[in-house]
Design goal:
With about 150 residues, the chain is mainly α. The chain has 7 helices and 3 strands. Strands 1-3-2 form a 3-stranded antiparallel β-sheet. A hairpin with a 7-residue loop joins β2 and β3. It is globular.
């Protein structure tokens, strides 16, 4: 959509509000789907964050919580057979968390159960989906933790 003299581009504040609203709605859909599969939103986020094995401290950073909180989250995921924890090869004090095959299946079920999100993306035509993905890929590295 081209801008014209009568149309002004949204301000950074406007974009922040729009992104926050989309993010919040996405997270609500994610949390509701996780709950339908017996997980809290924190547990489901952790499962998503350990698709590649990561140290517990790094997982805490990804979840934005204290390392002591991650222990309980990972304990529950392990008890459910969705994640595993092992000592790092170079330093046995460091614990590495990874997803199990069953955990991948549950994560796939959660994603497929996010009905509102699927409907929202289905409302976009292929060009709009492509443009949205390109914009996200452009902005994300600038927002991501360094």
């Amino acid at each position: 959509m081209a801008t014209t003299a009568s149309t002004t581009a949204p301000s950074a504040a406007d974009l922040m509000e729009s992104m926050a609203a989309v993010g919040a709605a996405y997270f609500q859909d994610f949390a509701a789907a996780a709950a339908r599969h017996g997980l809290s939103s924190s547990q489901a986020k952790a499962l998503k964050a350990v698709q590649e094995p990561v140290p517990m401290r790094a997982l805490a950073g990804r979840l934005g919580c204290d390392a002591s909180n991650v222990t309980g989250i990972v304990d529950r995921l392990e008890a459910l057979g969705l994640a595993h924890r092992e000592a790092a090869a170079g330093d046995r004090r460091v614990k590495i968390v990874g997803i199990t095959g069953q955990g991948r299946e549950v994560l796939d079920l959660i994603r497929s159960d996010m009905v509102r999100t699927h409907e929202a993306f289905a409302s976009l035509d292929p060009e709009q989906r492509t443009a949205l993905q390109q914009l996200c890929r452009q902005v994300l590295p600038l927002l991501a933790e360094r």
